[in-house]
Structure formats: C-alpha cells, structure tokens
C-alpha cells in the first residue's frame, strides 16, 4: 500500500487504515489482558484504543506498526492456546444479554448484511430464538448450492467460549449457520419499539 492509501480518511472525523491496524493491535493486547486475569501486560505504545497516524510518517513506520500488529496477534494466540480448558467457565466474569466485545470486520474478508423485518411483516416473530433460527434457515437455503459441506442451523442454547464475552461472534448463538460444525454465518439481532 502507498502512504496516501494508508493515511486516507473516508470522512473528516473517521480513522484511516493505518489507525485501524494499530487499533486492532491494541485490542488484541486488551483481550489478552482480560484472559490472563490480572497479570497485566504492557502495550508498547503510549495511550489506548486509537493512536493517531498522520502525515509525516514513512513506510518504515508503517512496517513497524504492522510488525506490532503481528506480534500482538501471536501473543494473543499463544495466550489462548495456553489456557486450561477446565477453567473456561470460571474465566467468564459476567454475562451480556447481547452484543459487546470486540468486532473486527476486514474489508474483502468479512461481509456484513442487515436484514430489516418490520413488526408488521408476516415474517415477524415475537420469539427471538425462533426468529433467529428462521434467518439461519434462509441463509442455508441461499448457501446450499454454492458451499460444499454440511450446512446446519444451530437450534440449541447459546454456546459460550472463553472469549465469547470479549469477542463478538466467538460463541455460537441460535440461528447461526455452521459448515461442518464450524461457524460460517454469525447473527445478531436488534429490536426497537417499532419492531
């Protein structure tokens, strides 16, 4: 990538790609801190969350920040791989009714689709679980001819993992689509007074 591409802001108050990469590095560090339960790790940059990346930097600076992202990713993976599965339930300190945690959407690698169903639509269902299973069934119908493998809709209770409280879509929720037992389509739902 070129410096102008790395520093481009899609809107005045938005973040550029470079800042998003460093932001991801920071949140890999933050999740690692949560998983290690009190053993505080240090982040190499001063500050938190977003780190301004503006004109005056070089591609060498970009390569350093990219190396930081790769390092934090490796450290997070090592932390997760080093966890004792027998302690997973004890590591979750709270429950969320919905949402929360880190969400990473990578352009070109992640697709985000909004499905809007007004409360007046015949497909509306007051039962949240049943409505999610219905959306999952529609995904299976759409994917069946283009995906090789066993597509299923998860119909059971929410399946928590050690990181599902920290990272959105890390567990398996009712209605989500699995390909050969591994999540392929994650779902979330937001309801308003209008439906």
Describe the structure.
The N and C termini lie far apart (43 Å). The protein is mainly alpha-helical and 195 residues long. It has a 3-stranded antiparallel beta sheet. A hairpin with a 2-residue loop joins strand 2 and strand 3 (182-185). Mean pLDDT is 80; it is low at 90-99. 15% of the residues are buried. Helix 2 (17-35) runs parallel beside helix 3 (59-81). It is 34% helix and 5% strand.
Properties at a glance:
3 strands, 195 residues, three-stranded antiparallel sheet, 5 helices, globular, mainly alpha
Unreliable runs: 90-99
Count the E strands: 3
* Strand coverage percent: 5-15%
* Helix content percent band: 25-40%
Order of helices and strands: HHHHHEEE
Q: What's the average pLDDT?
A: 80
Supply the number of helical segments.
5
The biggest beta sheet reads:
3 strands, antiparallel
Strand order of the largest sheet: 1-2-3
Structural class: mainly alpha
- Indicate the radius of gyration in whole angstroms: 20 Å
In short:
The protein is mostly helical and 195 residues long. Helix content is 34%, strand content 5%.
Helices, strands, pairings?
Blueprint: H1 3-7, H2 17-35, H3 59-81, H4 88-91, H5 128-143, E1 151-153, E2 177-179, E3 182-185
Antiparallel strand pairs: 1-2, 2-3
Helix pairs in contact: 2-3
């Amino acid at each position: 990538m070129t410096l102008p591409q790395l520093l481009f802001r899609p809107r005045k108050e938005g973040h550029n790609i470079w800042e998003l990469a460093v932001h991801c590095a920071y949140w890999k560090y933050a999740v690692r801190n949560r998983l290690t339960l009190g053993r505080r790790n240090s982040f190499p940059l001063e500050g938190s969350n977003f780190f301004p990346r503006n004109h005056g930097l070089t591609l060498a600076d970009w390569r350093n920040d990219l190396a930081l992202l790769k390092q934090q990713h490796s450290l997070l993976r090592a932390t997760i791989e080093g966890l004792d599965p027998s302690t997973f339930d004890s590591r979750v300190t709270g429950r969320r009714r919905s949402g929360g945690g880190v969400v990473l959407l990578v352009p070109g690698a992640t697709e985000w689709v909004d499905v809007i169903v007004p409360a007046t639509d015949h497909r509306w269902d007051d039962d949240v679980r049943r409505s999610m299973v219905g959306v999952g069934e529609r995904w299976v119908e759409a994917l069946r001819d283009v995906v090789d493998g066993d597509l299923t809709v998860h119909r059971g209770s929410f399946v928590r993992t050690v990181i599902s409280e920290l990272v959105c879509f890390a567990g398996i929720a009712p209605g989500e689509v699995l390909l050969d037992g591994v999540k392929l389509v994650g779902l979330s739902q937001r309801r308003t007074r209008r439906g």
